[in-house]
């Protein structure tokens, strides 16, 4: 561009004021053409080899603690990027009442987020706080070189080491400590993410967050209060007490939840520090529009759950269309509800009833009756003692109630059953033929083919968890309704069947 | 000449104030053992020697620098001590407010530690000697396979700021030596002879002494984790480094 302007000035100087307006316009036209052409020519050079991308100027990198990420690189040119990271061994809270000594990059678990673009020359200084006990180093998966920087960054407490590298491949990368015992350093929280954006940056989105899963191994079981030491044996056995996002159970819940507004696009940079477990990352109530698979270039669309290996990462993007709280989980679901791998995304804004209606209608759904269902016959139904035998009227009243709660859903209001699925109780030859058999079916359930009023049924009735008294009542009700044989079933009969005569 | 003169002064001091200058020592009976990095073919034999019962204290080192001004903070050669050297002291001859006289001296370089010991006719322990004494617990000389022994060491790795605890605050081991674990790291004479490279995983294929130790990390043996961290810290050091968690004690050969 500057050349062009010089060119114009030069032309103008040469011709001075001698030129007429028309010829000046002609020149202007020519220049415009030149300008257009040269615009194409000066369009950013693309480099076949990213190692050839030149850097200009120096810049101190912005580092952020999770769940925040630094400003996107946008269209900036490659620079010499100064990264200063401090290692701190410090006590933190795993969950309410449970303390843990974390080893951290930058004071947080996961460590500070580093944001670079391809071609940047990163000058990395790793400082080990004097109060720390152990030497540490850093292996950045974004580094091309032996040990990913580990060899050059091995640093004793109270000292610092500087090394530099050029970011050659765009993507989202894990970094971690690689000092012996490596597993212990990682298990104590020494990992984080470094993002290498492509030239021109990632497409802009409304919200970006930084989430990293890790598994922790403590002397005490999950929830045991006090300062918990690291347990090497459990770590070797991969028997995690805590599996959490961002270093602790409550890092992304309640007031710490991440937020967005309806209509916004959310981008999550999700890493997995491990040391052992692979994450099945899922957001309940959302579908990822885009997943940068394994943090690389490949984009998968419309993904429910994405797998993030230990020492790996993924970028997930989705537009939030309806308000509410969306739960982030490791869908290896016991980790979410029993070990802490649970976070929250709170979305505010207007409802969209087309996309999600909320509750439209409430009703009772009793496919197998209201009693607690168990599989046939564990022989331990609860017993209630009826002191006196009830009258038929009392039994009919009680029986009807029980029927409506327990039997109605399948056998229907008038005992008519459902053809081909549930046999009728009304005017039922099967029922009337054998009262003990009927009692036994209610007590123990029934599986397999039976013939009722000439129709074959092959279905399952689960054992009903109602008392012998209630069985007597409900069967009396059934036998005294719908043209059945009016048997009065007593509790004694039920007791007898139950005890096997 | 100067050196000779200083040595003479040292020796003089040594004779004049034996109580001040010389801490209590105990005899360690030699033996043969397999260190962390060893195999059967790499057994190490230790001959009898004497070891300080406690790490050198702030008080003892204070007296040392008063007698040897070249080891005072403002006068020390940069080659022999980095900027952390006696960093928390108020002045050349005053401890910091937070520092206890009876706490172990830390933030000293290998050169300073070595000179201190030599000044008393002693020397720093070799790694093999140090590890030999340190593998005992209260009752047995080699407790490395005991869970409780290893848990104590690993537990210390996670306790912050133990450097300001007083000497003798941990356990007395089989040899009647205190504080080998649980207080501070300690300099050894040949701290850098077993190299843990910065890239700890690579050591597995390195043809270094740690070949086996590193390979054993893959095993479930807790012992290697505890010890490996000591080797790791030694590997990260340079002789001029001074560290808040690193002190020393001396040993002496038994000449008969």
UniProtKB/TrEMBL annotation, chain B:
GO molecular function (one): formylglycine-generating oxidase activity
Domain of life, source organism: Bacteria
Sulfatase-modifying factor enzyme-like domain residues: 43-252
Protein name: Formylglycine-generating enzyme family protein
Cited InterPro entries: CTDL_fold, Sulfatase_Mod_Factor_Kinase, SUMF_dom, SUMF_sf
